[in-house]
């Protein structure tokens, strides 16, 4: 018998210090530990209330413990959990049908995360190019400061050296261009390129919107060279910008689209969407996943999709987006010593700090948290807001109040 086994393990008290004792230190979580959530409201171990403007990094877009999602998950949990990939299931068939009907795509591949969705997209692109053109067409073009996941392949494609240092040698034939720089893209995208992957709205890289002309040029270059255009909509998709997917806002259609995060509202699921022609490349045995598209995940995702992909719901997202942006633009104007501008799209906004406050986005985040507001950062110079899509005008007013309170305290203490 294991001497360390404790039959009270499920009820044993744990604290933030427990993280430092038993978890691999890949994160530096906040001092407080959330234990309960409802909508945009969270409570920690001490009963303190927080307004959550992170939605778990743009994941819980329908809010914590959304009743419709809870009901769907509970119903499926009492029906069928998992099947090996030698079998299909009804929920995944319904989800794939709904996603393809709602988008440009004809086919879907399901996995467990955004990184896996991007991995599948990149593997598809390589395999398609090798099959159609030969092994010479294998180079992948991405953008600096992008983020596509944490596998060795996707982190190499991401173009942020801080995430690849110490993990060399990295996968070869990957090149990076400057985001929104058309000439940089033209210089890099030649006949040996199999794929161009881009976030139409960079999230982790600082909440930077893609210029329509830049994204259109990527589309045109891919069409010209026979490369595949991959839109990474892991963070910008599923209603975040007011359209179901952000490519719809631009009217620019990719060959492959990846989604995750909000697709499951917190239940792990990722998706790669593509066309009939490209999907044929991944025949039986060429790619796979044990858990991807299991009945539990598919049921949750279909409920989320059905809720978000409604005209009235998306119209409200656009209305809330306009309200949040105008509120934050007023805040930035009033605190011009701290912030320079608001950028982003929909309900994914970044407040960019001034030169005098460079490196202090984390400090602003901590000050807000102390006052009961959870926000994100995107690098050390951008405060990121990504509330649930169900955010109310009253909650937008509250985030404004708490940010002002927090900034006043920081300025006074300086």
Automatic annotation (TrEMBL):
Keywords: Amino-acid biosynthesis, Aminotransferase, Arginine biosynthesis, Cytoplasm, Pyridoxal phosphate, Transferase. The modification N6-(pyridoxal phosphate)lysine is found at residue 261. Binds 1 pyridoxal phosphate per subunit. It catalyses: N(2)-acetyl-L-ornithine + 2-oxoglutarate = N-acetyl-L-glutamate 5-semialdehyde + L-glutamate. Its cofactor is pyridoxal 5'-phosphate. Pathway: Amino-acid biosynthesis; L-arginine biosynthesis; N(2)-acetyl-L-ornithine from L-glutamate: step 4/4; Amine and polyamine biosynthesis; ectoine biosynthesis; L-ectoine from L-aspartate 4-semialdehyde: step 1/3. GO terms for biological process: L-arginine biosynthetic process. N(2)-acetyl-L-ornithine binds at residues 150, 289. SUPFAM superfamilies: PLP-dependent transferases (SSF53383). It is an enzyme of class 2 (transferase). PANTHER family: AMINOTRANSFERASE CLASS III (PTHR11986), SUCCINYLORNITHINE TRANSAMINASE (PTHR11986:SF113). Homodimer. This is Acetylornithine aminotransferase. The lineage of its organism: Bacteria, Pseudomonadati, Pseudomonadota, Betaproteobacteria, Burkholderiales.
């Amino acid at each position: 018998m294991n001497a360390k086994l404790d039959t009270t393990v499920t009820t044993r008290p744990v604290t933030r210090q427990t993280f430092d004792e038993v978890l691999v230190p890949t994160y530096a979580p906040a001092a407080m530990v959330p234990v309960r959530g409802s909508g945009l409201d969270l409570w920690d171990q001490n009963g303190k209330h927080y307004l959550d403007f992170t939605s778990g990094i743009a994941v819980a877009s329908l809010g914590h413990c959304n009743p419709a999602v809870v009901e769907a998950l509970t119903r499926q949990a009492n029906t069928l959990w998992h099947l090996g990939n030698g079998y299909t299931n009804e929920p995944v068939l319904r989800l794939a049908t709904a996603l393809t009907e709602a988008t440009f795509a004809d086919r879907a591949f399901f996995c467990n995360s955004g990184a896996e969705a991007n991995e599948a997209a990149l593997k598809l692109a390589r395999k398609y190019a090798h099959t159609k053109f030969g092994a010479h067409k294998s180079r992948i073009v991405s953008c600096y400061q992008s983020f596509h996941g944490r596998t060795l392949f996707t982190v190499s494609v991401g173009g942020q050296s801080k995430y690849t240092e110490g993990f060399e040698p990295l996968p070869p034939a990957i090149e990076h261009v400057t985001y929104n720089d058309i000439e940089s893209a033209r210089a890099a995208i030649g006949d040996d390129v199999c794929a161009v992957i881009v976030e139409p709205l960079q999230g982790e890289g600082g909440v930077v919107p893609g210029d329509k002309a830049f994204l259109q040029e990527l589309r045109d270059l891919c069409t010209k060279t026979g490369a595949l255009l991959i839109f990474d909509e892991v963070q910008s998709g599923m209603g975040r910008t007011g359209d179901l997917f952000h490519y719809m806002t631009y009217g620019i259609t990719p060959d492959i689209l990846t989604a995750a995060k909000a697709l499951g509202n917190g239940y792990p699921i990722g998706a790669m969407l593509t066309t009939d022609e490209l999907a044929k490349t991944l025949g039986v045995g060429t790619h796979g996943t044990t858990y991807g598209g299991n009945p539990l995940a598919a049921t949750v995702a279909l409920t989320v999709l059905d809720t978000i992909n409604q005209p009235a719901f998306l119209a409200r997202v656009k209305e809330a987006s306009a309200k949040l942006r105008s509120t934050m633009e007023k805040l930035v104007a009033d605190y011009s010593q701290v912030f320079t501008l608001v950028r982003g799209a929909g309900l994914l906004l970044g407040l960019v700090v001034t030169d005098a406050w460079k490196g202090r986005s984390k400090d602003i985040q901590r000050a807000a948290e102390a006052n009961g507001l959870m926000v994100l950062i995107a690098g050390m110079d951008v405060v990121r807001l990504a509330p649930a899509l169900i955010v109310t005008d009253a909650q937008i007013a509250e985030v404004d109040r708490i940010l002002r309170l927090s900034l006043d305290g920081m300025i006074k203490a300086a």
